From TrEMBL:
Residue ranges constituting the Manganese/iron superoxide dismutase N-terminal domain according to the UniProt record: 2-82
Binding site for Mn(2+): 27, 74, 156, 160
Name by which UniProt lists this protein: Superoxide dismutase
EC class name: oxidoreductase
Task performed by this protein: Destroys radicals which are normally produced within the cells and which are toxic to biological systems.
This protein's record includes keyword Magnesium: no
Catalysed conversion reaction: 2 superoxide + 2 H(+) = H2O2 + O2
EC number: 1.15.1.1
Species of the source: Candidatus Sulfurimonas marisnigri
Transmembrane segments: none
A molecular function GO annotation: metal ion binding
Organism classification: Bacteria, Pseudomonadati, Campylobacterota, Epsilonproteobacteria, Campylobacterales
Cellular component GO terms, alphabetical: cytoplasm
Family: Belongs to the iron/manganese superoxide dismutase family.
Length: 195
């Protein structure tokens, strides 16, 4: 068993009241774990059994890709959250303002893209090949690294991410999710791309 379920970088009640312990017990403890288990079963004895998650996400197709990307996306999602308030770095904040006009305009674009995405998927803040920040939505398990972009933040818009706490109210989940963004993590991702 090569791939393992990541350890959450906080206690399961750290994101309350916006994301409940019950949601984490299902989303992390059942859905995320199931992707890890399926990935291990699918890659056993294949060329991917000793490859990195990133390599598999970039190169695999079908069920192996789907499960690897879902592991990767969820790892990224959980690290991107925090119960402690943080701010974006000055460098990131400046680029957000230059690409979107203001932090508030960026938030509006991100949340409207996430609210309007049809079906299951993910919404990302990514750096494109021109080194500009873009908001993009991907369907199902897809990840920007498949498209030569580097993600620095993601939001899970699969129903399993919010249905326990918010039922069908995806916009309400998004507003609360916004309060939990770990800007330190996002800023570190941005700084690593700039290096
Ligand atoms: Fe999820």
């Amino acid at each position: 068993m090569k791939f393992e379920l990541m350890q959450l970088p906080y206690e399961t009640n750290a994101l309350e009241p916006y994301i409940s312990v019950e949601t984490i017990s299902y989303h992390y403890g059942k859905h995320h774990l199931a992707y890890v288990n399926k990935l291990n079963a699918l890659t056993e004895g294949t060329e991917y059994s000793n490859k990195s998650l990133e390599y598999i996400v970039k190169n695999a197709d079908g069920a192996i890709f789907n499960n690897a990307a879902q592991v990767c996306n969820h790892d990224f999602y959980w690290h991107g959250l925090s119960g402690t308030a943080t701010d974006p770095s000055v460098e990131l904040s400046d680029l957000i303002k230059s690409c979107f006009g203001s932090i508030e305009a960026f938030k509006e674009e991100f949340i409207s893209t996430a609210a309007g995405h049809f079906g299951s998927g993910w919404v990302w803040l990514s750096i494109n090949e021109d080194k500009k920040l873009i908001v993009e939505a991907t369907s199902n398990a897809d990840n920007p690294i498949r498209h030569n972009r580097i993600p620095i933040l993601t939001c899970d818009v699969w129903e399993h991410a919010y249905y326990i706490d918010y039922r069908n109210m995806r916009p309400e989940y998004l507003e609360k999710w916004w309060k939990l963004i770990n800007w330190q993590f996002v800023s570190d991702n941005f700084a690593n791309v700039e290096k």
